[in-house]
Amino acid sequence: MKYVDEYRDGALAERVAAAIAAEVDPGRIYSIMEFCGGHTHAICRHGIEDMLPATVRLVHGPGCPVCVLPIGRLDMAIELARRPEVTLCTYGDMMRVPGRDRGSLMKAKAEGADIRMVYGSGDALRVARENPGREVVFFAIGFETTTPTTAVALVQAKALGLRNFSVFANHVLTPSAIQAILDSPEVTTTGSVRVDGFIGPGHVSTIIGSAPYDRFARDYRRPIVVSGFEPLDIMQSVLMLVRQLNEGRHGVENQFSRAVSHGGNAKAQALVDQVFELRDSFEWRGLGTIPDSALQIREGFADWDAERRWQLRYVPVADNKACSCAEILRGVKKPADCTIFGTVCTPENPMGSCMVSPEGSCAAYHLYGRWRDMEKRA
Amino acid sequence: MKYVDEYRDGALAERVAAAIAAEVDPGRIYSIMEFCGGHTHAICRHGIEDMLPATVRLVHGPGCPVCVLPIGRLDMAIELARRPEVTLCTYGDMMRVPGRDRGSLMKAKAEGADIRMVYGSGDALRVARENPGREVVFFAIGFETTTPTTAVALVQAKALGLRNFSVFANHVLTPSAIQAILDSPEVTTTGSVRVDGFIGPGHVSTIIGSAPYDRFARDYRRPIVVSGFEPLDIMQSVLMLVRQLNEGRHGVENQFSRAVSHGGNAKAQALVDQVFELRDSFEWRGLGTIPDSALQIREGFADWDAERRWQLRYVPVADNKACSCAEILRGVKKPADCTIFGTVCTPENPMGSCMVSPEGSCAAYHLYGRWRDMEKRA
Amino acid sequence: MCLAIPARVVEIHADDTATVSLGGVRKQVSMALIEDPAVGEYVIVHVGYALSKLDPAEAERTLALLASLDPTEAAA
Amino acid sequence: MCLAIPARVVEIHADDTATVSLGGVRKQVSMALIEDPAVGEYVIVHVGYALSKLDPAEAERTLALLASLDPTEAAA
Amino acid sequence: MGPTDRSAFPRKLDLRHGRVDLSHGGGGKAMAQLVEEMFGAAFDNPLLAQRNDQAVFDAPVGRLAVTTDSYVISPLFFPGGDIGSLAVHGTVNDLAMAGAVPLYLTAGFIIEEGFPLGDLGRIVASMAAAAREAGVSIITGDTKVVERGKGDGVFINTTGIGVTRPGVAPSGDRARPGDAVLVSGFVGDHGVAIMSTRENLSFETAIASDSAALHGLVAAMVEAVPDIHTLRDPTRGGVATTLNEIARQSGVGMVLDERAIPIREEVAAACELLGLDPLHVANEGKLIAICAAGDAVRLLDAMRGHPLGADAAVIGEVIDDDHRFVQLRTAFGGKRIVDWLAGEQLPRIC
Amino acid sequence: MGPTDRSAFPRKLDLRHGRVDLSHGGGGKAMAQLVEEMFGAAFDNPLLAQRNDQAVFDAPVGRLAVTTDSYVISPLFFPGGDIGSLAVHGTVNDLAMAGAVPLYLTAGFIIEEGFPLGDLGRIVASMAAAAREAGVSIITGDTKVVERGKGDGVFINTTGIGVTRPGVAPSGDRARPGDAVLVSGFVGDHGVAIMSTRENLSFETAIASDSAALHGLVAAMVEAVPDIHTLRDPTRGGVATTLNEIARQSGVGMVLDERAIPIREEVAAACELLGLDPLHVANEGKLIAICAAGDAVRLLDAMRGHPLGADAAVIGEVIDDDHRFVQLRTAFGGKRIVDWLAGEQLPRIC
Ligand code: SF4
Ligand code: SF4
Ligand SMILES: [Mg+2]
Ligand SMILES: [Mg+2]
Ligand SMILES: [Mg+2]
Ligand SMILES: [Mg+2]
Ligand SMILES: [Mg+2]
Ligand SMILES: [Mg+2]
Ligand SMILES: [Mg+2]
Ligand SMILES: [Mg+2]
Ligand SMILES: [Mg+2]
Ligand SMILES: [Mg+2]
């Protein structure tokens, strides 16, 4: 696979690892947050931590759209799916996320709700066209990477006059989440979370570019490297961050230059702007309620907005008390710090959202990395 | 089973058989038509022919509603059942009757049509109430026995305002069929069918009484005995006919006096009259098109009339050329006279309607009596 | 489908239906076609509806008539 | 679900879609977010949509940079 | 590695509120847990405990009998049993009908997404109890889950292995003219019990399914008369179809005596109501036996001496007939054919 | 009484336009005809020809292996096979994984009302061909028909009986630290071929299912190395789940080498597209073998000498590990766990 295999090359990896090992200051801890769950997943899948010096610590961030969606929003989707006239189309990742009273889309489906797993918004559109007698709702989640694909579907539905299609929109904004992390008391006051620099989500930046990070680098004095998702990309990004930190710099650098520009994808941005507008406020799991941190469907597309069509109302629901997802999403805890990780909470029976998506920290650790914790404990 | 077992008593049967044997005039043939398929079935099931003298010949009549329905009317039901919005409720007997191009309700069901076998019109009403999103059509067939039960369902549907229920009515009239037989060239001219007297359908007469037969007995000089359906009832009716014939009488007698009166069931008659009116003409399989021989739904119940709702049109279809059902229904042939009886045409793969319902002559003979023909041939 | 069978009324319900019993089998059927059904009476049941009452005296009379046929005379 | 992967455009269709190929696997994806896609170009594919083009020169530059890291210096 | 190995399956199956979902058939951990905690625990025996994809054991000496049946009955729970006990009885009986001693069963489950785990547990428990009572072990199994709307609660396949007795070789092609035809008791109970539960036929009756394992009865029978010519359980299609099958296989006819056939009044009544012939109605705890006329009394005595044969009767005899007709002398005094069941009677009685 | 006995079944099955209806499962004549004309004709062998509800045959001498599986794959016809051939291969393979010689299969069909008789005929023919090629006989069967909407075309259960070879006793609990772990060829082909047909994932690939009967390969393997410790076919859940099962049964850990695992580029690419791990993807013609390290080269040579093992490879070793983890040295240079499949991958790949 061109542009994949080259960036997984073990020989090159040794070079980068050696360079990192050679360049780190032995007396210094490098605490680097990878914002994106995709990065967390790649780190665990390829065993990248084994190739970094002990002083380079990766802190997993909140960049997993499945993980940050609060229970109340998931419950709205379950409620929708239970309506007899509705066919809910969802990304498969959402199926097992636990909602209120241990419900989930998977359970609702088993109980008879018409729920289809789709590959993307285009499939949901197809389902709507093929089932004119059904109200087909696309359960849209995701950061800026995914938002434009939902926008395309909405523009197409409007153009087609497809009245049995609508979108339950839950798109959220990366910069808001980064700001929330940087403003959190753990970072600013208690110091229990140390973030010396960020590995920025490269796929998000294919759309929004690297520009939106400039202000964080400047105002919060943290280096940010926008990174690709192959393991060599991540290794190189770590090296670039180590160098900035060693040199006392805090700029935005673009490791993923083969796909990311400073300004991003203007066509996609225009589509998103046509369909969506800022939502006054949105509750994030772990990060709390953040103003202007998510999108909602504009008035012009109101007829395709599931929240308006069924007058859905958000009711906040407290997370499971035993679950530490909130702290994990803020970087305060690691999966193994959760008392029920791997015992009560497993991918088969997840108690928190972080154990569901392969991009959730708990799931990635459980699937790929839990021997590491066992070894540490032993 | 009280009022059942007593009328199946083998010892009493021997007495009646002996009486018949004693009373028949040895030099005379007694050719008796049992009008009703229910009688045909009972005769074959209990082996009554074995207990009658060879000179008493039973001729099977057209009194099977499944058998006399022409292909064109069945095709209308199949067409209805194929409509995606329709759930067709039918008596199980209709499922295998062959329609045009070897189609059947059974095949339509296998191909995806929503067809439910019901025990009666009341179940069809229930299906309609339980499936408000479906157009539930009751495929109503039958002689006067069954007509009032359809009438009750229509009156109830109207009272309930049940708009997703309708009836495809195919109710036919016994006296018309008897008259057609008596007026047929085989009886009046060629003499190929000899009918010395009739065993009248007792269940029909629970509703219409015995009175409607008075004019046949008088005008056509044929004795008629309204008969119950247990084997002793039939044997006794034969005895009563033999006596009338021996004595040169031709009256209407009521063997089934425990359930039948001269006037019949007034309440049922009123209900039928409220819902149904005479149809100008109706095509019968075997008997041809007969004026005033069937019923249609009155204007006041037009909203529950499937023929009106879907503007169904009757298209006559010729019977399968190899099939002798028409002749069998007129008494001209016996099942074994059909060249494909028991070979190409079997209950599993019926070619004609008479091979389907257990009350059809071919089916009754095939199920219960075909050894008799084999013996004769051998 | 032209099957009809006598059964005893064992319970009358409010909605113009009754439970009838035949040889220990109970079934709820419509009484919409029957005037004044009563518990203990027999009715002829067809496709879930009672069609008519059964007259016990006439039933007896029929059986008596059959029993009165003289087999010795017949055998002659 | 945040999976995105580079694939080569092998055929462009009329309805703003294209067939892309990845290691011999072909899939039809939307080109609604891409300006002027051309056969032979690589795009990053996510949930059935191409998100951006991939710049081959930049891709080479990154790999060259990695290859240029001096392991002997590192081993020191 | 026991059923309480909580390191592999930290949370117990939720039998109260849980439902089967697609992951229970996915081949992963959820399936492993279902297999271990539900099937493994209920069916527990050393061969099943091998936990391989097959069971391995010493071949018995002699001739083996092997049979398979899938059970798709609706409803799953019915008066007198459930699909679990039925899946054991039906297959044990097909072994018994070869005169074999049933030894082992396999169990294949096809479960519809959404099926309550509690109901599955009840079925599995009933299956385990039936197997225990019949003295057979369920030695290997399989679990599949299909999407909602692609199944009907649960279907169960059981395959049975037994070993035949020397000198005992009943077969459908061994009926000979002159042989006696026996039935082990009242016919039609199972089918009527099932039909009584069907919404569109709804009638009430005290009749329960006769579902039972017949190998004990057969053991008593072959002890009395080793040379039973034919044994068969008249399930789908009833006594009538079974006798026609045998007549066809053996190239003979039969004549039955209607008065001799044991039929309960409720069954006869239900059949009158529905227009069915009790001889076409399914049984799950009855057998048809055919033996030389001279052995009939001894065989009947042996049957009546066993609780499952208490109401056994000689119901007819085998005759020479090129047409292979099964005929019936009616109680009324006439004669008629007893034919194969034509078409389906009512869906899914086994 | 042969397949052309027109006196019993005057009209032939209509394979061109006919569909299965409920009467084909009713136990009556329509079912008898389907069984005789379709199954009986295709599977023809002396044991099946007994036409009883069971097959009776002399028990082989030695140890028997018995396995059962139900096949519910969707779609029924797929690149590289169909449900019929799969139902033979899958069950033959479970016997082969005990080191057994497969002898007999039973076949239980659950058919949905309306299923085209022609498609059923194609499946049955494919099943018969697969059985013939594998040298096994289908000796008894069962047919059920369920109403439309209560099934999914056709489900097939096959139960297999084989006889083991003396001195050959592979089992999931016999993996020992130091043992070598081998795979017989490219992994993930079957699952990717099935997924490529699913409408909502639709992608095109030249990959066909690897569905094949592996007992010939196993015969070559046990001849070279009789004491193979463990054999298992990595079907649902893939290589990852199978190795975890073995690790759990044997109480050991494993370390695999990612670079050594044979994976086709198309399979790897499809997995990247779908976010799947190829080690979780199903195979139907591959096996995992575990043997003493000293036997590994000999075993590998034997495998590579057989067409179905041409791409065999040693992919890892068994280690001592109380946690029973299966670990992977990644091609990139790191280490990770290879876990059980969590949840369902994609519905109904077997
Ligand atoms: S292990 Fe489970 S409960 Fe604990 S933080 Fe992770 S997802 Fe939440
Ligand atoms: S045997 Fe068949 S084709 Fe012939 S008359 Fe009877 S129903 Fe018609
Ligand atoms: Mg992300
Ligand atoms: Mg009639
Ligand atoms: Mg069997
Ligand atoms: Mg059986
Ligand atoms: Mg299995
Ligand atoms: Mg049997
Ligand atoms: Mg198996
Ligand atoms: Mg298997
Ligand atoms: Mg069977
Ligand atoms: Mg296996």
TrEMBL record, chains A, B:
<keyword id="KW-0408">Iron</keyword>
<dbReference type="GO" id="GO:0051539">
    <property type="term" value="F:4 iron, 4 sulfur cluster binding"/>
</dbReference>
<dbReference type="InterPro" id="IPR042243">
    <property type="entry name" value="HypD_1"/>
</dbReference>
<dbReference type="GO" id="GO:0051604">
    <property type="term" value="P:protein maturation"/>
</dbReference>
<dbReference type="Pfam" id="PF01924">
    <property type="entry name" value="HypD"/>
</dbReference>
<comment type="similarity">
    <text>Belongs to the HypD family.</text>
</comment>
<dbReference type="GO" id="GO:0005506">
    <property type="term" value="F:iron ion binding"/>
</dbReference>
<dbReference type="GO" id="GO:0070025">
    <property type="term" value="F:carbon monoxide binding"/>
</dbReference>
<dbReference type="InterPro" id="IPR002780">
    <property type="entry name" value="Hyd_form_HypD"/>
</dbReference>
<dbReference type="InterPro" id="IPR042244">
    <property type="entry name" value="HypD_2_sf"/>
</dbReference>
<keyword id="KW-0479">Metal-binding</keyword>
<protein>
    <recommendedName>
        <fullName>Hydrogenase maturation factor</fullName>
    </recommendedName>
</protein>
TrEMBL record, chains C, D:
<dbReference type="GO" id="GO:0005506">
    <property type="term" value="F:iron ion binding"/>
</dbReference>
<comment type="similarity">
    <text>Belongs to the HupF/HypC family.</text>
</comment>
<dbReference type="GO" id="GO:0051604">
    <property type="term" value="P:protein maturation"/>
</dbReference>
<dbReference type="Pfam" id="PF01455">
    <property type="entry name" value="HupF_HypC"/>
</dbReference>
<dbReference type="GO" id="GO:1902670">
    <property type="term" value="F:carbon dioxide binding"/>
</dbReference>
<dbReference type="InterPro" id="IPR019812">
    <property type="entry name" value="Hydgase_assmbl_chp_CS"/>
</dbReference>
<comment type="function">
    <text>Involved in the maturation of [NiFe] hydrogenases. Involved in the biosynthesis of the Fe(CN)(2)CO cofactor.</text>
</comment>
<dbReference type="InterPro" id="IPR001109">
    <property type="entry name" value="Hydrogenase_HupF/HypC"/>
</dbReference>
<protein>
    <recommendedName>
        <fullName>Hydrogenase maturation factor HypC</fullName>
    </recommendedName>
</protein>
UniProtKB/TrEMBL annotation, chains E, F:
<dbReference type="InterPro" id="IPR011854">
    <property type="entry name" value="HypE"/>
</dbReference>
<feature type="domain" description="PurM-like N-terminal">
    <location>
        <begin position="52"/>
        <end position="163"/>
    </location>
</feature>
<dbReference type="InterPro" id="IPR036676">
    <property type="entry name" value="PurM-like_C_sf"/>
</dbReference>
<feature type="domain" description="PurM-like C-terminal">
    <location>
        <begin position="176"/>
        <end position="327"/>
    </location>
</feature>
<dbReference type="Pfam" id="PF00586">
    <property type="entry name" value="AIRS"/>
</dbReference>
<dbReference type="GO" id="GO:0051604">
    <property type="term" value="P:protein maturation"/>
</dbReference>
<dbReference type="Pfam" id="PF02769">
    <property type="entry name" value="AIRS_C"/>
</dbReference>
<dbReference type="InterPro" id="IPR036921">
    <property type="entry name" value="PurM-like_N_sf"/>
</dbReference>
<dbReference type="InterPro" id="IPR016188">
    <property type="entry name" value="PurM-like_N"/>
</dbReference>
<comment type="similarity">
    <text>Belongs to the HypE family.</text>
</comment>
<protein>
    <submittedName>
        <fullName>Hydrogenase</fullName>
    </submittedName>
</protein>
<dbReference type="InterPro" id="IPR010918">
    <property type="entry name" value="PurM-like_C_dom"/>
</dbReference>
